[in-house]
Amino acid sequence: MYFIGRNGSLIIAVMWVETLIALLFVVARIYTRARLVRNIFWEDHLISISMVLFFGYTISCTVATLNGMGSHAADLGPAQTVKAIKWEIAGQTFNIMAIATSKSSVAVFLIRIVDRKLHICLLWFCIFSTTFVCVSCIVFMFTQCTPLESIFNPTIPHTCYINFTVNAIISGSYTTIMDFVLAIFPWFILWKLNMRRKERLTVAIGLSLGVFAGMCGIVRNVELRGIAGKADYTYLTMPLIIWSSTELLVCIICASIPVLRPFYKKVRGAVSSSAQYELDDATSRPQGSHPNGTAKNSYLTHSVSQRLSGPFGNQPDSAASLRGLSANIMMAGEHENFSDDDIMLRDTRSCPELGVGGGIQTTTAAEISYK
What we know:
Helix 2 runs antiparallel to helix 9 and helix 3 (78-111) packs parallel to helix 5. The radius of gyration is 26 Å and the shape is globular. The chain contains 11 helices and 8 strands. Helices cover 56% and strands 8% of the residues. It is mainly α. The model is unreliable at 271-371 (pLDDT under 50). The N and C termini lie far apart (82 Å). The strands form 4 sheets. The chain has a two-stranded antiparallel sheet. A two-stranded antiparallel ribbon has the order 3-4. Strands 5-8 form a two-stranded antiparallel ribbon.
């Protein structure tokens, strides 16, 4: 027999609306990567896993709500209370793992941008430490007391070894700090890229939305005190359920916005920029330049190798041609669906037809003018 209390409808409505909004962003992101950019990266897999976990969280909490979650324990029967708590804890397990994968998605995205070893090590530390904190939180949640059934039914005799409320607050505080770190960090990275101000701000501001995820995390940490209220657990943890869902939604949105520019431009019917990005770090610049000063040290990630042949001299169709020269020519405007950040980050290992090796290629682009 199902029982939806006065707060149950609110929980179900908020969580499913937020889940569907997150799904729209993830679907748009995967469409952009698969159909427009034609490349799926590791961060896209991580955000897809986060979406699956989000559904697991929402479905579990929906079942918990149908069994009285959001209502006072006094209004529920003992069996119904145990079932509601069991499904909520199952949902929290999905949510904690989704927090780890969504934050890791942002960090993996940034790893493909940075070129300094210190930055790369810092981002990997964020990934491993956040994952460790989240996994350990799940382990402590299920091992805090014996027997295991006492976690769902505190009325049976039990012995607790861990103050899980304190552990949850510490873990939640750490993941909230990671939200702010990953939101601020892009500004230090992107400032070293010689890219148009508009493109820099688009990527940086999109990732900086993680500040709002951090704010949601702060509220969630405050609401974590509700898990200590064993006598009225089904009612006191209601705000925690909603704010955890909101934080996960914001994490998915801020991780997806920077890669949706090709989709946005496709909707607008605009041609994306073909700007070439250069890193200001001199150690990453190739040596040498074109004798006429027209060569550029740039990071080209989508180019074609074209062999031009023919004798030098005055010809009716062109005033200049090259013999036996393999030149990398940037096809500006042909691939209109690449956003500027996707051009910079395109993994050329998946494009053998271009004759380009793996990773971001540093090359010299010769400018050829025809009269």
